[in-house]
What does this fold into?
Amino acid sequence: MNQTGAAVRAIGLGKAYRSYVGALSRLREWLDGRSRHELIWALREVAFELAPGAALGVVGDNGAGKTTLLSLIAGAAAATSGAIEVVGTRSAILELGAGFHRDFTGRENLWLAGLAMGIERNVLRRREGEIIEFAELGEAIDAPLRTWSSGMVLRLAFATATAVEPDVLIVDEALAVGDQRFQSRCLDRIDAFRRRGGTLIFCSHNLYQVKKLCDSALWLEKGRPRLFGPAAMVVDGYADASRERRLEDALGRGGVEPPGESLRLAQVARVEAFGPEGEKLQQVATGASITLRVWIEPSPLADLAPGVAIGLVRSDGLVCHCTSTEIDGVELERDAEGRFAIELQFNCLPLLGGRYHFNVAALDNRRPLVLLDVREGEAPFSVVNPLTDWGVSRLAHAWQPLLRPPAPERE
It folds into this structure.
């Protein structure tokens, strides 16, 4: 281990590529030694440390340098400046299916990929069955890859790459493979890797996954680090910036520097929730009434009709209900302090037992597809079901015994 005790350490890390005007320029440079190229920097001045067992998320727009950074950490590319230190073994999932041969069978490709990753033959022999079972390939494993679907190829690639137990696992957008059930199994495998004390570096456009899997995050912008810190803080900052850019495009203001620190035309100033007796919402029984109050603070320069969107979400991410003032045709009114406030009442909340929270967004009722500000995880509370029915919600129903039931229809 290095002197800092870090599992992964980046020191002023940078990667540049040479750009030539033409092929002759490259040849002349080689012949006379005179520089005839321009350096195009894909990554510059990246620095961070990860302790063993930590998980780092990497976020940023396309072209921000995320894949370049992961390639440097994986050892698949050489740094132009600075250094990257990785302690222990590492396994990388950078491009699923890369190196597979379409005329070879799945089993042959499994061995080719495994050996290329440095997995020893005896280890690969022991794990062959486990890899095939995890990828859910069955008899197709002995058919040529040209007969497979793209999803089957991706499943084999993920299963092979995660078959070893490295000290550091590097994952680049690999959880978009297969259906939702297989994605869940991929997440379970990464969770198990982390529980064993492995260090994870994870890049994804799915910000929920970054929050769920990672302790810290690095936001790259145009090849440079913009923000590094706790995952929730970095992800929320990146999401806010992305929404602001989309808003610029929607309003036709792209390229115009907004006043102050943010273009945000309205923000969610406060969210409060109350139980049936007016108490602060913490725990209620199934069927109780609850009230949600939201304050929206618009920018003085904003020309908009402020609105609110509400999502009621269970702790596992299940969205139980979404609505908005625009959908229901409701207009907000300004209070004495110049803000807009609105109250949403659920006279009978039919949700069954579990933990829940609200996601709240400010919007413009005239342009409801653009969310101006989003606050997630607001007003968390629990629901206790005093009865024994189960599921997501209690549906109104009635049982009626049939004394003379009609004869069943024939199929």
Summary: The domain at 266-384 is CATH 2.70.50.60 (Coagulation Factor XIII; Chain A, domain 1). The longest helix spans residues 231-251. The two ends are 70 Å apart (CA to CA).
